[in-house]
């Protein structure tokens, strides 16, 4: 009998093939709208500022995401034996604080403690992106078939060996999904750090809003969206090639 992952593979491959087409259609529609509205001619004057303003964007996202992954990842593995669902959900609610509180409020609280600039910006983005990694890690580990854990235990593996050699490899695809979600949140929230003095593309976005200058706002919003799409695409390729065949529903 075929496994659900094997049955779902053709469907996932079709989705993977359709996704780039949908992105191209959306981008083409946005470009056509800008051109027809006459705003396209107002964006190029701000292109000279893009290299300077876009550079802090990955510089903020990378430190925020780098510590978040090892900090959140170990909280996701289930104890052996697994904790009751009620206890697990209580732990999840602790990490849910960063997602429940608006990112702007987290940045404001960070600014009151750490001042203005890069440090509170990195801390705020870090706090806002913990939950997807923790929850996906926990969900992925709980979805590992029990008979694999029982077989590994019967072979004499210690709980640590079962975790690293059996459970984590089988949960890797779901864990990567959490990392990609956290990256999308982090990249999308990064323009907000301009409000606490960390610079970035938010300078064009919020200045354009304040001056009611739509081309200036679009000059910051479009590169931010492109960075988000590019980061998700790159990590999607890493996920596709790093997760081995057999536990990767896309291969």
How many distinct domains? 1
CATH fold-level assignment: MetI-like fold
Derived from helix and strand composition plus strand pairing, the structural class reads mainly alpha
Number of helices: 11
Could you tell me the radius of gyration in angstroms? 21 Å
* CATH arch. level architecture: Orthogonal Bundle
In the CATH scheme, the class would be Mainly Alpha
Helix content: over 70%
What's the number of extended β-strand segments?
Answer: 0
Description:
The chain is an all-alpha fold and 251 residues long. Helix content is 75%, strand content 0%. The protein has helices at 4-37, 50-54, 56-72, 85-100, 103-114, 118-128, 130-142, 146-154, 159-189, 202-211, 214-242. Helix 5 (103-114) packs across helix 6 (118-128), helix 7 packs antiparallel against helix 9 and helix 9 (159-189) runs antiparallel to helix 11 (214-242). The chain is globular, with a radius of gyration of 21 Å. The protein starts with a helix and ends in a 9-residue tail after the last helix. The model is unreliable at 1-8 and 71-77 (pLDDT under 50).
Layout of secondary structure:
Blueprint: H1 4-37, H2 50-54, H3 56-72, H4 85-100, H5 103-114, H6 118-128, H7 130-142, H8 146-154, H9 159-189, H10 202-211, H11 214-242
Helix pairs in contact: 3-6, 3-7, 3-9, 4-7, 5-6, 7-9, 8-9, 9-11, 10-11
Features:
single chain; 251 residues; mainly alpha; MetI-like fold; 11 helices; globular
Short description:
With 251 residues, the chain is mainly alpha-helical.
């Amino acid at each position: 009998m075929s496994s659900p992952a094997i049955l779902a593979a053709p469907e996932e491959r079709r989705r993977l093939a359709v996704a780039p087409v949908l992105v191209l259609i959306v981008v083409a529609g946005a470009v056509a709208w800008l051109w027809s509205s006459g705003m396209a001619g107002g964006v190029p004057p701000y292109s000279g500022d893009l290299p300077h303003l876009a550079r802090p964007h990955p510089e903020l996202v990378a430190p925020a995401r780098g510590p978040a992954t090892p900090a959140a990842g170990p909280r996701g593995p289930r104890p052996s034996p697994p904790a009751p669902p009620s206890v697990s959900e209580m732990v999840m609610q602790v990490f849910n604080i960063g997602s429940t509180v608006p990112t702007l409020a987290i940045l404001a609280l960070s600014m009151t403690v750490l001042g203005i600039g890069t440090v509170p910006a990195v801390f705020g983005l870090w706090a806002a992106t913990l939950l997807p990694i923790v929850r996906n890690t926990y969900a992925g580990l709980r979805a590992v078939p029990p008979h694999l854990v029982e077989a590994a235990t019967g072979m004499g593996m210690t709980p640590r060996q079962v975790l690293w050699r059996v459970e984590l490899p089988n949960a890797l695809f779901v864990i990567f999904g959490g990392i990609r979600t956290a990256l999308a949140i982090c990249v999308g929230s990064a323009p907000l750090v301009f409000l606490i003095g960390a610079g970035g593309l938010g300078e064009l976005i919020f200045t354009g809003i304040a001056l009611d200058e739509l081309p200036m706002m679009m000059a910051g919003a479009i590169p931010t969206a492109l960075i988000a799409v590019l980061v998700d695409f790159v990590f999607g390729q890493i996920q596709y090639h790093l997760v081995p065949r057999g536990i990767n529903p896309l291969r």
